[in-house]
Design a protein that fits this description.
This protein is an alpha+beta fold. 25% of the residues lie in helices and 25% in strands. Bound molecules: flavin-adenine dinucleotide.
Length: 532
Amino acid sequence: MSDQRVPVLIVGAGLSGLSTATFLGLHGVPALVVERHPTTSQHPKAYGQYPHVMEALRLAGLERRYLEASVLQDVRIMIGVSMAGPIFHTIDEALWPDLSALTTAAWGGAGQDRSEPILADRARELGATIRFSTEVVSFEQDDEGVTVVLRDIPTGERSTVRADYLVAADGHRGGIRGRLGIGGHGRGLLHRLMDVHFEADVPADLPASGHVLMHLQNPELPGGYGDLGNPEQLNRYLFGVRLDERTQAEDLTEERWLELIRIAVGVPDLPVKLTRRGEEPVEIRHWIADRIRDGRVFLVGDAVRIVPPNGGFGGNTAVMDGFYLAWKLAMVVNGQAGPGLLDSYEPERYPYAETIAAHGLAAFLRAEGQELGEDAMQADPDPVSQLYFGYRHISDAIVREADDDGAPMENPERPTGRPGSRAPHVPLVKDGADISSIELLGRSFVLLTGAEGEPWAAAAAQAAAELGIELAVHRIGGDGGLTDPANTWATTYGVTESGATLVRPDFYVAWRSRDASGTTELTGALRAVLDR
Ligand SMILES: Cc1cc2nc3c(=O)[nH]c(=O)nc-3n(C[C@H](O)[C@H](O)[C@H](O)COP(=O)(O)OP(=O)(O)OC[C@H]3O[C@@H](n4cnc5c(N)ncnc54)[C@H](O)[C@@H]3O)c2cc1C
């Protein structure tokens, strides 16, 4: 007999768990999140939010909160011996390509110590319960659900929760994947580092003053390398060094840290105040799970893959895993979709895990000056925006067209609008205000149609009533105050003004009809996608 029944239990209150809880809440499902630690992350770890992530966060009502918490604006990366020089290389704004043709969302720059509390607050506002200092001790799944044993860490008290589904957002070191017998592959441990935060009034005229991130190549540092971050451009720094045979975590006493910081800054008598010392080594790994689903258990975030931070994808992908999984879980839990919809999670999400792992590994190896192997992406996709907006979802939750070549990526600068691709951004005007077509999407399934698309309203109403789902219809260029000044939406989406495109809640095109002849097929398309 369990003490509590919940639709979804999420293990881990990191970016992936909190994102899953937030988007489940947005779709009307109140999740229970349990987290072993007493708080969210105190470490800033992932700083940048890519615009496709900001679009998802905008849907959750979080864009403004993220931008207010952003400390990163421009990025200057330097490589050199110390802040005092010599400097070998400077990269300005390398991480911030102009994507304004693809999105209206800005880049975010909130560290994880700020973004996790924002997500946690929003998840709670949307109905989630978050229990800190609580861990999953064991779980067992059967045909109807998952029984999970929890332990309240301060009291040691155990309780049992019965959940329809379990989401393993328990990070790379979480135990759920292992208990399911899911193995993995990849290069494994690349190196380990220890880090500290410190405050110092570094002279403003040093050659590397003003850097956001500095990679140090200095034989006086352990292993010859170090990383110095100053994202806030204040007197607060994050400094990490590698552990090697000669330097272990216990060798890094306060005195030794002060010595190393002065070497990194290049000012021998610099007054320095240590404000936080990492308790355990950060492991930089390249590893991908062999599967990301087992029955009623779904893996998200670092439980799926762990990539070197160089590519900047770990945290961003963790947020998006939650975004892509939540609507599917919600529709199944709410009885609006059959369980087969959940079969699409792995085929849609797994190829992307492999892609970003190869990308992150390549970025790491390049920074190290090492040869790339077959498992590292030899060249960045051209354009690199494919990694944000160009990856496709190929599964039974997409009604693929006969001539679809199954390509896993496409160039978002030349969108096809075909099913399985992200709905393209088109600038529109709604009630006099500029909006992106993406802002019409996300709360439910959406049908976009054009000036001659009157027949779709009745077809959509009938489909929604028959299936008991919400299906919003937006007629672009009709009489509803939504216009397309550049007259590009229909060609961009690959339909005519009488055609329509059905978009899933995750902004992906599920099905389209080039003209109004497809009105009779709409319900069937939804049935196929929703496993009804
Ligand atoms: C130094 C560093 C820099 C980084 N920089 C970037 C960057 O610039 N950009 C980027 O995108 N990414 C970056 N990353 C990666 C990013 O931080 C991770 O990908 C992200 O935090 C993963 O989130 P997660 O929620 O999947 O896992 P985690 O943050 O690891 O969260 C998992 C949580 O599950 C909890 N847990 C585990 N087991 C249990 C259990 N049995 N019961 C209860 N709770 C449990 C853990 O306590 C933990 O809080 C960086 C990482 C590091 C370490």
